[in-house]
Please model this.
Amino acid sequence: MTTAVAVTGATGFCGRHIAAALLSAGLDVATLGRRPSEPLRHAELDLDGLTQAAAARSLAALGLRPGDAVVHSAAAVGDSGDRAAFERINIGGTRALLSACSGLGLRFIHISSASVYAAGRTAQPLPEGSPLGGHRDPYSLTKSVADAEACAAGAVVLRPRAVYGPDDPHLLPRLAAARRGSLLLLPGPSRGMSVTHVKNLAQAVVDALDWPAGAYNIADSESVDRDAAVQAALTALGLPTRIVHIPILLATATASTSEAMSFMTSGHPRTTRYAVRQLAQPVVLDTSKARHAGYDPEHTWNQFVQRLSAAGTTS
Ligand SMILES: NC(=O)c1ccc[n+]([C@@H]2O[C@H](COP(=O)([O-])OP(=O)(O)OC[C@H]3O[C@@H](n4cnc5c(N)ncnc54)[C@H](OP(=O)(O)O)[C@@H]3O)[C@@H](O)[C@H]2O)c1
Model:
């Protein structure tokens, strides 16, 4: 009998690709969320205020049986916002779904993030056993709590970094929007960093249905040089860009001011300390654990850029 897999966040960037890869692998795919993802069968589930009982009802409505799986990609994402809402959705919602899955004997694959790793001097490449937490921004803070709880509950936890790919609504659009004329100000010198093609992440999810419980870093086979990668992608989009480095301290101070202003005006900050950290830290993930489990990422940034050049959009 085909394993059934329910995907949360299937209306989002990663979840849509994950659901498509599971379908291509011949699995019986359903979705859980606030909105359906046609044409898949769907059950209503809002992580905000979710209880274990409500989660169990949604899972039962999909007819999942012990041994089936839930892939939890939904989350409150973004580098600023209402901390309480992040806590309710990313911690409370994940906790309720985890408990309901455990009660029904369902396997759980949690889409976490490399942002859960503690900032600062850490081993490079960064293994899964590196310290987590110590964050102030609500996204990393709540994702690190959810990651730890999912690990403790025996889930498979995937930690991608800087996910990009077809129809990416996050990474490249934000970099494009941050240009001033043809200039892009980036904090500190260029760094080597891990990025994750969304199709590599989606294939990792398919593979991870058979992996032992625990955390796995998920990234492309090669890290990229930050400036070269950004410049190539923006140029391919028809946005030739000159990158100018600004000191990390100045970028952080500007981001603090921008966040404070946005708090007072209830708007979106133009830049955040989270974004500065993501762009300034040389985070290269050690993916050997996933590779030993069978992960074999085939998609690369260069290949993505070539397709962008041909198409002129991220789709
Ligand atoms: N993109 C990246 O660079 C990146 C990097 C590392 C890790 N991740 C992780 O990957 C996962 C997916 O991220 P993404 O980039 O695909 O984000 P996304 O495009 O913003 O999608 C977020 C998804 O979460 C759902 N969601 C949000 N709040 C919800 C709620 N209260 N109840 C039910 N569903 C809710 C959204 O559903 P609606 O359609 O109802 O809003 C949407 O389907 C997240 O767990 C994120 O932490 C992403």
In short: The pocket of NAP is lined by residues 9, 11-15, 33-35, 45-48, 73-77, 89, 111, 113, 143, 160, 162-163, 170-171 (CB under 6 Å). The chain has a mean pLDDT of 93. Residues 83-104 form the longest helix (22 residues).
